[in-house]
Write a structure and sequence with these properties.
This is Beta-carotene 15,15'-monooxygenase. By secondary structure, the chain is mainly alpha-helical. It is built from 18 helices and two strands. Strands 1-2 form a two-stranded antiparallel sheet.
């Protein structure tokens, strides 16, 4: 009974991936044949038969058990017989007879087998969770009684019926943006740890792992919702709908990998993670300031950042334990070189950014460069350029990165020029 339950878990966990892989293999085999008009599906079957023979010979030479070899050849002959005698649709299951034994017995795929075995519980529950989420989309979207009942619940709360749609929309956003991804991330990580007990040292945390799982969950749930809205606008065959969502469900096997890597690495160092989050927050705040009060912020940074950086970084040793114990600490040659380049690049980046801003701003106060970037991004993302806060931040980020790129090459040129002038021994500037 336990083995049967485990087999069902493997089947449900890997079924979407197996179906998707089968369609890919059939498509790859059928595509070259379709280019030649006088060839039909039989030609694809011949290619599959050749692949079956090659794989069968490889399995024989690899020394797998005779029971598996007999099962492989029996199912191969059976599906070939069904294809020619009963139905051409038998070709749809034949790729499984090639791919499944390869995954099970191919030595070069040992890491893939370990990845699947370690995450089988996570894959199973993620597929169950996603299937329920997809069904809820169709249930809520196609059932008007649910919306009417929710509106009746809102009446005793003295919420006007005219605001009911807004309340439902807010609840939907709260559920979609927060609750559903959070629970999905927790589900996957919880069942992975239940299958693979891991002990975290005191200085390791999984905060970043849960956050990564949240963003990946948000991405895949967004795809499900967008697919629902797309399908609801056309009259689609139920089989086609199931096939589309099956393909999306198969992405769990691939999108889970970053979370898996983080889990087997026991998360992140707690102090380092907090430092990275603080740095990211400071960068975000600085980016907002650059976007909202550009001229004042850049002016302040241009004057003070190159001056303060050597102190902030170069004097950091003064709070080290070694210095506090009274031991002598001094800059290495690597630190001196790093501070020199960092100061020059930061100044040149801010200078170039300031020049671009001055050149781009019109008499009416419109930033031509930023507007061009925003219109380009809105065209690529197919969004309204008037919905601009995020696009404006992205445009400022692109301007900063563009300025940094130019400053990098400008700094290299300046350093080379200064070296030729001042480091020439014949000119006597340095002893």
């Amino acid at each position: 009974m336990k083995k049967a339950g485990l087999a069902i878990k493997y089947l449900l966990a890997l079924f979407p991936s197996v179906v998707t892989l089968t369609m890919i293999v059939v498509g790859i085999i059928s595509f070259p044949v379709s280019l030649i008009s006088n060839l039909d599906l039989v030609s694809s079957e011949i290619i599959i038969i050749v692949l079956m023979i090659i794989c069968g010979v490889r399995f024989f030479r690899s020394g797998i058990s005779k029971q598996w070899q007999v099962l492989y050849w029996f199912t191969s002959i059976l599906t070939i017989f069904l294809f020619f005698v009963w139905s051409k649709r038998a070709i749809l299951i034949q790729p499984l007879q090639i791919t499944v034994p390869l995954v099970l017995f191919e030595k070069n795929l040992q890491n893939l087998r370990k990845y699947i075995n370690d995450n089988i519980s996570a894959f199973f529950w993620l597929n169950v969770y996603d299937s329920i989420f997809i069904c809820l989309n169709f249930l809520v979207g196609t059932n008007k009684h649910i919306s009417e009942n929710i509106q009746k619940i809102l009446v005793p709360l003295n919420i006007p019926i005219s605001y009911a749609d807004a309340v439902l929309g807010a609840f939907f956003l709260f559920f979609w943006l927060l609750l559903a991804p959070v629970f999905r991330s927790w589900f996957g990580i919880h069942f992975f740890r239940k299958q693979n007990p891991i002990s975290l040292p005191a200085d390791r945390v999984l905060w970043g792992t849960y956050l990564l799982g949240y963003f990946l969950s948000l991405a895949i749930l967004t795809i499900y919702i967008n697919t629902y809205f797309t399908i609801s606008q056309i009259n689609s065959n139920p089989i086609f709908i199931m096939l589309v969502y099956t393909i999306y469900l198969s992405s769990n096997v691939f999108l889970w990998n970053p979370v898996y890597v983080s889990l087997i690495n026991l998360g992140e160092n707690k102090d380092k993670l907090i430092s990275n989050w603080i740095l990211s927050s400071l960068i975000l705040v600085l980016l907002v300031l650059v976007d909202q009060v550009e001229s004042d912020t850049i002016g302040i940074l241009t004057w003070f950042l190159p001056i303060l950086l050597p102190n902030f970084i170069g004097e950091l040793y003064k709070i080290s334990d070694k210095y506090q114990r009274g031991e002598k600490v001094s800059h290495s040659l690597k630190m001196e070189k790093h501070l020199y380049h960092l100061t020059m690049i930061s100044f040149n980046t801010l200078l170039i950014f300031n020049i671009i801003s001055i050149i781009s701003v019109t008499d009416e106060g419109e930033h031509k460069f930023k507007q061009f970037v925003i219109s380009t991004l809105s065209g690529l993302l197919k969004t309204d350029s008037s919905s601009g806060v995020v696009l404006s931040l992205f445009s400022s980020l692109i301007m900063v990165l563009f300025s940094l790129f130019l400053a990098w090459w400008l700094s290299k040129g300046i350093v080379k020029l200064l070296k030729n002038i001042y480091l020439d021994p014949s000119k006597g500037y340095f002893n």
